[in-house]
């Protein structure tokens, strides 16, 4: 079924979305208030100490981390999000026809250009 150009939306059409958003927000606020009210209130040096996986932490939490880690993480997210755009295109492949195919080739070309630029700059080389 194709959408028509004469489809008009009224504010009432969005009421279920607003209700769901309000319910989700209400649940979050309710959970935060209840856990604050019934949670333990006794503090001590041992209870407030930082633990990671049952191992006592050592050193400063502000230890420098290589920028390479963050660059690879950002690039992973960037290229992962780009792949998400392939799914709607694949679903609507027949409907989009040759024009959609050409635009996807342009999109993939730009994506590969960015990827080859990253490779040329040596961002993915971990030393």
From TrEMBL:
<protein>
    <recommendedName>
        <fullName>NADH-quinone oxidoreductase subunit A</fullName>
        <ecNumber>7.1.1.-</ecNumber>
    </recommendedName>
</protein>
<keyword id="KW-0812">Transmembrane</keyword>
<keyword id="KW-0813">Transport</keyword>
<feature type="transmembrane region" description="Helical">
    <location>
        <begin position="101"/>
        <end position="119"/>
    </location>
</feature>
<dbReference type="InterPro" id="IPR000440">
    <property type="entry name" value="NADH_UbQ/plastoQ_OxRdtase_su3"/>
</dbReference>
<comment type="subunit">
    <text>NDH-1 is composed of 14 different subunits. Subunits NuoA, H, J, K, L, M, N constitute the membrane sector of the complex.</text>
</comment>
<keyword id="KW-0472">Membrane</keyword>
<feature type="transmembrane region" description="Helical">
    <location>
        <begin position="69"/>
        <end position="89"/>
    </location>
</feature>
<comment type="function">
    <text>NDH-1 shuttles electrons from NADH, via FMN and iron-sulfur (Fe-S) centers, to quinones in the respiratory chain. The immediate electron acceptor for the enzyme in this species is believed to be a menaquinone. Couples the redox reaction to proton translocation (for every two electrons transferred, four hydrogen ions are translocated across the cytoplasmic membrane), and thus conserves the redox energy in a proton gradient.</text>
</comment>
<dbReference type="InterPro" id="IPR023043">
    <property type="entry name" value="NAD(P)H_OxRDtase_bac/plastid"/>
</dbReference>
<keyword id="KW-0874">Quinone</keyword>
<keyword id="KW-1003">Cell membrane</keyword>
<keyword id="KW-0520">NAD</keyword>
<dbReference type="InterPro" id="IPR038430">
    <property type="entry name" value="NDAH_ubi_oxred_su3_sf"/>
</dbReference>
<feature type="transmembrane region" description="Helical">
    <location>
        <begin position="17"/>
        <end position="38"/>
    </location>
</feature>
<comment type="similarity">
    <text>Belongs to the complex I subunit 3 family.</text>
</comment>
<dbReference type="Pfam" id="PF00507">
    <property type="entry name" value="Oxidored_q4"/>
</dbReference>
<keyword id="KW-1133">Transmembrane helix</keyword>
<keyword id="KW-1278">Translocase</keyword>
